[in-house]
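Side project, low priority. Logging it here so it doesn't get lost.
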Amino acid sequence: GRSGTNFETILSQFSDHVRRRGLVIVISDLWDRPARVISALKHLRHLKHELLVFHLLDPRERRLDLTWPRILVDMETRQELEVDGPSADGFARSVRDWTEWLGRECRRHNIDYQLVDTATPFDLALLRYLHKRQRLG
């Protein structure tokens, strides 16, 4: 099987150790099967936790603004993949569809979802979120 992060397993192990309800802040790139991500988050909501998800993506992961063709390397598995320009356009569309779907699913289950660009300092991203929450609350 593929090595790497299993988001669902990690959050399941976390929920086994946290008995009191509270605010759970998830900071992750969420690179796992989308259904697994949502399943894990829904499980935490079922346990009555309030959830805030900061979905971290590098700007290059969202746009792939590179010269083509290019060899991309999976940082966890070291697997290499040669990619050309049209494939990159399809990848960027897939990433956009994926993040929009995650955002919709989170909202549907009363989970705060924030897409955060890694080029943005995290303290600024957190302050923006808190300011938005204060305006809406």
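Brief comment: DSSP finds five helices and five strands in the chain.
Revisit when time allows.
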